[in-house]
Amino acid sequence: MTFGDRVVGAMKLDANAFEDVERDTTAIGQSVTVIVLAAVAAGIGGIWAGGLSGIVSTAVISLIGFLVWSLIIWVVGTKMMPEPATKADYAETFRVLGFAAAPGLASVLTIVGVIPLLGWLLAFLISVLIWVWQCAAMVVAVPITLHVPGPAWMTPSNSAQSSSLSAPTRR
């Protein structure tokens, strides 16, 4: 998969995109790129509130947040509560979870906050939707990076339907 395919796949919650990133040990730079681009998009979207310095501070805070969040998931998933099949190192965890930030690229839409009167409300609602979308991406990414069973909707069904919300086949 190309970088663009991975980003779009992550935004579609396609487990195969996260699997592809998990297998590619050289994708750490791509993961950081996704996190930074999502943070910059959020900064641009919120420029009406934070100005130009808000873009830089948002990017730095987002990167630090993902470092900490992926460390917590890695420690809990591999050290505190591992499944028998669990195997992941920190770099792999960060790499896969970084792509879960891909829905944050839509944060640029929060620039509607500049609209007088109700713009802030629309920006807030968009932010909440993006946050939920990113959480859903984490729900897909975490089981893949830790090699544990995911939610029931990620498991292949008996029907022949093909969905981006189905679990990938392990190679």
Provide a descriptive summary of the structure in words:
The chain is mostly helical and 171 residues long. It is 63% helix and 0% strand. The protein has helices at residues 3-11, 15-23, 28-45, 47-80, 90-99, 119-146. The model is unreliable at 156-164 (pLDDT under 50).
User: What string gives the helices and strands in order?
Assistant: HHHHHH
What's the average pLDDT? 84
Report the structural category. mainly alpha
Largest sheet: none
Given the C-alpha coordinates, what overall shape results? elongated
Please give the radius of gyration in angstroms: 17 Å
Q: What attributes does this structure have?
A:
171 residues, mainly alpha
Describe the structure concisely for a colleague:
By secondary structure, this protein is mostly helical. The protein has helices spanning 3-11, 15-23, 28-45, 47-80, 90-99, 119-146.
Helix/strand layout:
Blueprint: H1 3-11, H2 15-23, H3 28-45, H4 47-80, H5 90-99, H6 119-146
